[in-house]
Write a structure and sequence with these properties.
The complex is a heterotrimer of chains A (225), B (741) and C (272). Chain B has 28 helices and 28 strands. Chain B has a 7-stranded mixed beta sheet, with helices on one face. A 6-stranded mixed beta barrel of chain B has the order 22-27-24-26-25-28. The longest helix of chain B has 17 residues. The termini of chain B are far apart. Chain C is of the alpha+beta class. Chain C has one domain: Alpha-Beta Plaits (2-Layer Sandwich). Chain C is 18% helix and 17% strand. The chains are: A mainly alpha (225), B alpha/beta (741), C alpha+beta (272). At the A-C interface, helix 6 of A face helix 4 of C.
C-alpha cells in the first residue's frame, strides 16, 4: 500500500479511512492462493510430466490376443526354466515358433517380422518392472513356494490389448512402475508399487527370513545381490 | 493490482505450502537418494538362460577339461569339469581366466598384413581371400624355385590333428622342417628311445607312487598337467606318500614337499648318480630287473662307482653325504619310488645326461612299467588319414637335412632342436629359411636367448603367424591369419604331459567366433587347395572338422559323446616284452656311448671371471611363460615381492645380499653375458647363497597395458647351452653379477 | 531323501581350508574374481588397493636358509559370528546398515548401494578382508561381456568383500524351490573357490549339520564359540573371539602358531 493511495482516499472522502481486512488481506490471501495453486499444479501435474520421459515400446503387443491362443496362461511365455530361473520377457526364439512368417496384415506384426525376425535381432523390450542391479528377486520363491499369482505384483497387464507407454524417471532412471503411477506414491492395489518397502511389508507379514541382526527384519541377502 | 513485497511473500508462502502438499519434494528426495546409488556407467550385465558346455581349454600345457557357463550367448565363467580324467573338477588358474582371452582387446580381429617396418605395429586389414592368396603365391614361388625345404613351421604342440596337419602340409610341400617349441618331453622322449628302445612318450603313474624324488620339477607349479598335478599332490597327502624336492630354490613344490634338499644348480644329475652309487654299492637295487631285464649295467655301474661316491658328489652338489645315503636308502626301500626330472615347468629340456641319470634310478629299483612307476606309452596318433601324396619336388625337399640338425648323425635321437635354429640361420647353414609359419608359439618371447632368436627371425623374409592374440612373435610377422580363440573352435588335445593313460580331449566351440577369424586347420586346407597338385590331393577335406573326424575315426564317436576319449585299461608291457632294444632289454649304458661325457654337467656360457653369482630362472604357477601371455586376472595375482609397478624383483639369499650391500627392495643392475637389466632385490631365505633367482614369463613388450612392460624377460638374460650328447638346451641358468643401480 | 542333518533350522555356512593341500596356485583367487565381477586395474601391484575378496597369503617360519619353510593361506571373509551370533566386528560398527549378519545362514552380507564408504568396517576387521573401491571399475572393451549377472557390479567409494558366493545359494534355492524343496543338499551350494581349487583343499558346507564334511572335519564346539574340537584344526586369531566360520587345517605346528599372531595378515609381514 503506497502513501499516495492513502492521500487520495483522504481527499475524496474528507475523512481518514480505516483500511478493512478485505482491502489489505485480500491481495495477500489472493497471492497466497495463487502461489498455493501454482505450486500444486506444478507439483501434481507438471512435475510428473517433467520427471518422467515417455518411451514407446519398439513393437506393440496384444496380451489378450495371445492369451486366447495359449494353454498355460502367463507361464506359456513367461516361464520357469528347469534351474528355477525365470525367463522374463520372451526372446525372439520363442516368438519365431509362430511368427517365422507374417500371420496377419497388422502393420505392427509386419514390422516385427521384418525388423526383428528376419534380421534375427532381439526386441529391446522396455521392462516395466525392471529392478535395479542390486536387487535379487526370485520369481520361483514367490510363485511356486509362496503361491502368489502374477497379478499381485504385475496387475492386469495380461488383459491389455496394447502396451502402455514406458515412463522412465529422469533422475533415478527407474521405470515409473517401481514408484507407481500415482505420483504421490499412494497405492490402492498390491501391484501399484514395487519399492523395497513394498517387498518388506509383505515379508514382515509373511515372516519371510526375518534374519537381520541389524534391523530385526528381513536379511539383506534375501532381496539383494 | 500491484505486486508489492508482502504479496510476493504471500505468493512464496503459498508456493511453499503448496509444494509441501505435493509429492515434489519427497519424490525428488527419494529419486536423488536413488541417484546417489545409481552408477549408470558401471555395467549391468544382462541375465538370461544359463547353459553349461563341456570343452577342453588349451591355454595351459596339459589342457584342462572345463565346463563353460554361459548366460545367453556370453561366456561368464570357466570351471573344471567334474568327470574329466585329469583335472577332475579342479581347474588351473590360466584356464579359469579364459574369458579374458576370449573377450580381451589383444585379440587379433581379422587378417592383417604388415605395412610399416617389422615390429613397428603398422598393419593393414586385408580379406581372408587376399591373405590366403598372398601365402599361396609365396609358397608357390619357393616351390617353383625348387627350395621347398626353406619353408618351416614352429608349433607349440607336437601332437593332435592341427600339429599333424601342419606337419602334413610341410611334408606334402616338401619340407622336413616341422619344429616344436622345446620342452622336457624332448629329453624324456630321447631317454625312452635310448634306454627302452621305445619310440613313444613317458607316462607317470603318479597317484600310485609312494615316494617321489623330484630333481627340480615344479610338480605343483606347471610341470605336466598343472591341475592334475595339484590334484595328485593332494592324493599324495591323503595316502601319506613322501615327496622329496631337490632344487636350489624353495619353490612352492619344495615348500609343500616333505623335505627340501637344496642343490647347487646344474648338479642334479650328479646327485642322481650319487644316489645310484649308494644303491649299487649297498646292493639295494632290484636284482630281478637289473639281472634279467637290463643290459649295460656293468658299464653304468663302473661309470657310477668310479666318480660319484657320496663324498665326491657332496662336494659338487652341496648336499650332505648323509643326506645322499639316506635318500638312496629311502628311495630303494620304498614300495613304489619314482624319480622325476624336468626343471620347473620343463620348458627347457635339460641335457640328456640328466634325464638318463634320473631315469636310471627308476630302473635300478625296477619301477618301470609297473603300478606307481614310469611307463612307456604309445604316442598319440591321428591314424585315420591316408598317407600324403608326394610329388618329385616334395621328395627332393624331404631328402634334405633338417635345418636344426635333428635326426642327423650328430643327434640321432632328436626329433626337433629349435634351440639350434638361431645358429643355423645366423650361419646360413645348411640353408637359409625363406618362410616360416608360427602356430600358437611365441618364440621371440619364450625362447632362452630371445635376442638371438629375434636376430634369426630377421633373416627370414616371410613370417606368417596364426596367432589369435597380438604377442611378440605376431608383432614381428609379415602376415597374420588369426586363429579362432580356444572357446570358438574344434580341436583334439591328446594328453602328452605325462598322464599314464592314453587320452584325447575334444575342444568344442562354446561360442560362435566373435571376430573375423579362421580355424588354422581350415586356413591350411584352403592353402593346400590353392597350391593344387599333390598338395591339394594330400589335404582333400572339405573343412577342418571333417579332417578331424576322419583322423580320429575310431575314437570319434566316443569323443563326440563324452568330450574325451580314454583308454582306461591301458597297461604297459611287462618287462619281458617291454624293451625293443637290440638286446631286447632295458639299456643302462647304451653300448659304446661315453657315459662320463653324457653325465658331464652343462657349463654356463660366457665365463670371463667377472661374474660372482649364478642366475637361475624359476617358473611360477601364477605366471604363464609359454605361448599364452598372462590375462589381467593372472597379472593381478602376482605377488608384490615379484612385481611392484613395472619393477621386477629377483630373489637373493640375505647373506649374499648383505655381502653385496643390498637391503630389501634395493634397485640393482643384474648383468649376465647376454645383457643387463635393472631389477629390485627381494631377500629370500628360500634360496641358496650365491644365487639370484628370476621368474620367467614377465617382461612382455607385446599385449596391452595390463601386461606389457611389466618386469623383465628372463630369456633376455639367460641363453641356451647346447648339450653335446643330444643337441638339447641343457642350460640351468647363467653366470651373473648384481651391482647397485 | 532321508535327512537326519540340519532341517528347518538356521544354517551356519562355513569353510575348512586344508593348508597341507593348498599349493598357493591362486586359482581360487581367479575363480573368485571371475565369479564376483571383481575389477582389475592396469597396475595391481599395490596390494593395499588391490581388491581380492579371497587373498592367498604367504607365511614363512622366519628361519634362515636352509630351514626356511613356507605355507600358503587363502583368506576369504571369515564371516565372524562374534561373541553372540551377529556380533561381528564389522556389523557392529556399520552406521549405514550396509553390512549385516544373517541369522539363518550365518553369512555377513554387504549391500553396495547402502554403503557410503566410511570404512569403519575395514578398520574393525582384524582379517583385512574388506576392500575399498578407490576408483570406478573399468573393464577393457569387450571384457564386460564376461560379467556375471548374479552379482552386482560395484562403484567407487564403497566397501566390498567376500559373500561366500551368496548368489550361488540364491540360485541353488531357486532350483530347490522349482522342485518344491526348501532345503539344499550339501553339494548344491558351493562357493566358486571351493569348486575351482585343483587341490580340493577347500571344503564348504553347513557347520551346524553333522552330515556335512565341514562339520565333520572342524567339529565346532557350540559351547565354546565354535572352537574346533579337531586338534589339527584352528581359526585365525582365535583369541579375539570373533568366532569366524573359516577353519584351517595344518599339520605344521609353526603354521598353527603363526595364525594366532595379531599381525598375521599385516601388509609388512605377509607377502601375497
Amino acid at each position: 500500500m503506497s502513501k499516495v493511495d492513502d492521500t487520495k482516499h483522504v481527499a475524496a472522502d474528507g475523512q481518514e479511512k480505516v483500511p478493512t481486512a478485505s482491502e489489505t488481506g485480500g491481495p495477500i490471501i489472493l497471492f497466497f492462493m495463487i502461489g498455493l495453486a501454482l505450486s500444486l499444479v506444478v507439483g501434481w501435474v507438471i512435475f510428473p510430466k517433467l520427471l518422467y520421459s515417455q518411451k514407446k515400446q519398439p513393437i506393440d503387443f496384444n496380451h489378450v490376443q495371445h492369451m486366447e491362443l495359449v494353454d498355460d496362461g502367463c507361464e506359456s511365455c513367461h516361464f520357469f526354466r528347469d534351474d528355477g530361473s525365470f525367463s522374463g520377457a520372451p526372446t525372439l526364439a520363442q516368438c519365431i515358433d509362430c511368427h517365422e512368417e507374417v500371420q496377419s496384415d497388422t502393420e505392427n506384426e509386419i514390422r516385427f517380422v521384418e525388423e526383428y525376425v528376419q534380421k534375427n535381432r532381439e526386441v529391446p523390450w522396455l521392462v516395466y518392472s525392471k529392478q535395479p542391479q542390486c536387487v535379487y528377486f526370485s520369481h520361483v520363491a514367490h510363485v511356486k513356494m509362496g503361491n502368489m499369482d502374477c497379478v499381485t505384483c504385475h496387475g492386469h497387464i495380461g488383459e491389455s490389448t496394447e502396451l502402455p507407454v514406458y515412463e522412465q524417471n529422469r533422475i533415478s532412471l527407474y521405470s515409473r512402475n517401481i514408484w507407481g503411477k500415482n505420483i504421490g506414491g499412494f497405492k490402492k492395489n498390491t501391484w501399484d508399487r514395487m519399492k523395497m518397502d513394498d517387498c518388506a511389508e509383505c515379508h514382515v507379514k509373511e515372516g519371510v527370513r526375518q534374519a537381520s541382526v541389524q534391523t530385526g527384519k528381513g536379511g539383506c541377502f534375501v532381496c539383494h545381490k | 493490482m500491484k505486486i508489492d513485497r508482502r504479496s510476493f511473500l504471500a505468493l512464496s508462502v503459498g508456493g511453499t505450502v503448496g509444494t509441501a502438499l505435493t509429492p515434489l519434494p519427497w519424490k525428488i528426495q527419494d529419486d536423488l537418494a536413488i541417484w546417489t546409488q545409481m552408477w549408470p556407467w558401471t555395467p549391468d550385465p544382462l541375465d538370461g538362460e544359463n547353459t553349461f558346455t563341456h570343452t577342453v581349454s588349451t591355454l595351459c600345457r596339459g589342457g584342462c577339461g572345463v565346463t563353460v557357463r554361459k548366460v545367453g550367448d556370453r561366456v561368464v565363467k570357466i570351471e573344471g569339469r567334474e568327470d574329466y580324467p585329469t583335472n577332475q573338477g579342479g581347474v588351473c588358474n590360466l584356464c579359469a581366466s579364459g574369458m579374458q582371452m576370449l573377450y580381451g582387446p589383444t585379440r587379433i580381429p581379422h587378417p592383417i598384413k604388415r605395412v610399416g617396418d617389422r615390429g613397428a605395429g603398422q598393419w593393414a586389414r586385408i580379406s581372408w581371400e587376399e591373405a590366403l592368396s598372398m601365402v599361396a603365391e609365396q609358397l608357390g614361388e619357393i616351390r617353383q624355385a625348387g627350395q621347398p625345404e626353406t619353408v618351416a613351421c614352429l608349433s607349440s604342440r607336437k601332437y593332435g590333428s592341427v600339429a599333424e596337419l601342419l606337419k602334413r602340409f610341410l611334408t606334402a610341400y616338401g619340407s622336413p622342417n616341422f619344429m616344436v617349441t622345446p620342452s622336457m618331453m624332448d629329453a624324456y622322449d630321447m631317454t625312452l628311445k635310448r634306454m627302452h628302445g621305445v619310440d613313444g612318450r613317458m607316462g607317470f603313474d603318479l597317484e600310485n607312487a609312494d615316494y617321489v624324488l623330484s630333481f627340480g620339477s615344479g610338480l605343483i607349479e606347471g610341470w605336466g598337467n598343472t591341475a592334475y598335478m595339484i590334484h595328485t599332490n593332494s592324493v599324495w597327502k591323503e595316502r601319506k606318500a613322501t615327496v622329496k624336492q631337490i632344487e636350489p630354490r624353495l619353490s612352492n613344490t619344495a615348500a609343500k614337499s616333505d623335505q627340501w634338499i637344496p642343490v647347487t644348480p646344474g648338479t642334479e644329475a650328479i646327485l642322481a648318480l650319487g644316489i645310484a652309487y649308494v644303491i649299487i654299492k649297498e646292493s639295494l637295487y632290484d636284482y630281478d630287473f637289473v639281472n634279467n631285464f637290463s643290459t649295460g649295467f656293468e658299464e653304468f655301474r663302473s661309470a657310477v662307482l668310479s666318480g660319484y661316491s657320496p663324498g665326491n658328489v657332496a662336494k659338487q652338489t652341496g648336499v650332505d653325504q648323509s643326506t645322499i645315503v639316506t635318500l638312496a636308502r629311502e628311495f630303494a626301500r620304498a614300495r613304489r619310488p619314482m624319480a622325476l626330472c624336468g626343471r620347473g615347468q620343463g620348458t627347457v629340456p635339460g641335457g640328456l645326461g640328466e634325464s638318463v641319470a634320473v631315469h636310471a634310478l627308476n630302473a635300478l629299483v625296477g619301477n618301470i612299467n609297473r603300478p606307481g612307476g614310469v611307463w612307456a606309452m604309445p604316442r598319440p596318433a591321428v591314424d585315420g588319414w591316408a598317407a600324403p601324396a608326394l610329388d618329385a619336388s616334395a621328395q627332393a625337399g624331404l631328402a634334405k637335412p633338417r635345418l636344426d640338425g635333428a635326426g642327423s648323425a650328430a643327434f640321432p635321437f632328436a626329433e626337433q632342436l629349435f634351440n639350434r635354429v638361431p645358429e643355423a640361420l645366423a650361419t646360413g647353414s645348411p640353408y637359409p629359411l625363406k618362410a616360416l609359419f608360427v602356430y600358437e608359439a611365441n618364440p621371440l618371447f619364450s625362447t632362452p636367448g630371445a635376442a638371438k632368436v629375434r636376430e634369426a627371425f630377421d633373416q627370414i623374409p616371410f613370417i606368417v603367424s596364426f596367432a589369435s592374440h597380438m604377442d611378440e612373435t605376431a608383432m614381428a610377422a609379415d602376415l597374420i591369419l588369426p586363429n579362432h580363440a580356444h572357446l570358438e573352435r574344434w580341436e583334439d588335445v591328446p594328453d602328452t604331459s605325462g598322464f599314464h593313460q592314453p587320452m584325447i580331449g575334444l575342444v568344442q566351440p562354446v561360442v560362435e567366433p566373435i571376430r573375423d577369424t579362421m580355424h588354422t586347420g581350415d586356413a591350411l586346407l584352403r592353402l593346400a587347395a590353392a597350391l593344387g597338385g599333390t598338395m591339394a590331393a594330400s589335404m582333400p577335406w572339405e573343412n577342418y572338422k571333417a579332417c578331424l573326424q576322419e583322423g580320429l575315426a575310431s575314437r570319434w564317436s566316443q569323443l563326440e559323446a563324452d568330450g574325451f576319449w580314454i583308454d582306461n585299461r591301458y597297461r604297459p608291457d611287462t618287462w619281458s616284452l617291454a624293451f625293443p632294444t637290440p638286446s631286447g632289454k632295458f639299456d643302462f649304458g647304451v653300448a659304446g656311448s661315453d657315459l662320463k661325457a653324457l653325465f658331464a654337467p652343462a657349463q654356463p656360457e660366457g665365463d670371463d671371471g667377472s661374474y660372482n653369482l649364478k642366475l637361475i630362472p624359476y617358473d611360477s604357477v601364477r605366471i604363464p611363460n609359454g605361448p599364452v601371455g598372462s590375462p589381467p586376472f593372472l597379472v593381478k595375482i602376482v605377488s608384490d615381492t615379484v612385481l611392484k609397478g613395472n619393477d621386477l624383483f629377483v630373489e637373493v639369499n640375505p647373506e649374499t645380499a648383505k655381502a653385496a650391500g643390498f637391503v630389501e627392495g634395493d634397485h640393482a643392475v643384474l648383468k649376465t653375458p647376454l645383457g643387463s637389466a635393472t631389477v629390485r632385490v627381494h631377500l629370500s631365505d628360500g634360496l641358496m647363497p650365491g644365487l639370484v633367482a628370476i621368474p620367467r614369463g614377465l617382461g612382455h613388450t607385446a599385449f596391452d597395458g595390463y601386461l606389457a612392460e611389466k618386469g623383465i624377460n628372463a630369456n633376455d638374460l639367460i641363453g641356451s647351452v647346447e648339450d653335446a650328447a643330444s643337441g638339447l638346451d641343457a642350460a640351468w641358468g647363467i653366470l651373473a653379477s648384481l651391482v647397485k643401480a | 531323501m532321508k535327512h537326519t542333518g540340519n532341517i528347518g533350522k538356521p544354517k551356519r555356512y562355513g569353510m575348512v581350508i586344508d593348508l597341507d593341500k593348498c599349493t598357493g596356485c591362486g586359482t581360487c583367487m581367479v575363480a573368485c574374481m571371475a565369479e564376483n565381477n571383481v575389477p582389475f586395474k592396469k597396475d595391481e601391484s599395490n596390494k593395499l588397493d588391490s581388491i581380492t575378496w579371497l587373498r592367498v597369503y604367504r607365511l614363512t617360519n622366519g628361519k634362515p636358509y636352509p630351514d626356511n619353510e613356507v605355507c600358503y593361506l587363502p583368506r576369504p571373509c571369515q564371516h565372524c559370528a562374534g561373541k553372540h551370533e551377529g556380533h561381528s566386528p564389522c556389523v557392529s560398527v556399520c552406521p549405514a546398515t550396509a553390512t549385516d549378519y544373517d541369522q539363518e545362514t550365518g553369512i555377513v552380507s554387504q549391500i553396495y548401494t547402502r554403503c557410503f564408504g566410511c570404512r569403519y568396517c575395514m578398520a574393525a576387521c582384524p582379517y583385512h578382508a574388506r576392500y575399498f573401491n578407490w576408483w570406478d571399475p573399468v573393464w577393457p572393451k569387450g571384457m564386460e561381456k564376461a560379467l556375471n549377472p548374479n552379482v552386482s557390479a560395484r562403484m567407487r567409494g564403497i566397501v566390498e568383500k567376500c559373500s561366500f558366493c551368496f548368489h550361488r545359494y540364491q540360485k541353488a534355492m531357486e532350483k530347490a524351490h522349482m522342485e518344491g524343496r526348501r532345503e539344499l543338499e550339501e553339494d548344491e551350494y558351493q562357493t566358486a573357490c571351493t569348486q575351482a581349487c585343483p587341490a580340493g583343499a577347500i571344503t564348504f558346507g553347513d557347520l551346524n549339520n553333522p552330515e556335512h564334511k565341514v562339520h565333520q572335519i572342524a567339529q565346532p564346539d557350540p559351547a565354546k564359540g565354535g572352537r574346533p574340537r579337531n586338534p589339527k584344526v584352528f581359526r585365525l586369531l582365535e583369541e579375539l573371539e570373533t568366532n569366524p566360520k573359516v577353519y584351517y587345517l595344518s599339520s605344521r605346528e609353526w603354521v598353527q602358531e603363526a595364525c594366532h599372531k595379531p599381525h598375521l595378515l599385516d601388509q609388512k609381514t605377509a607377502h601375497h
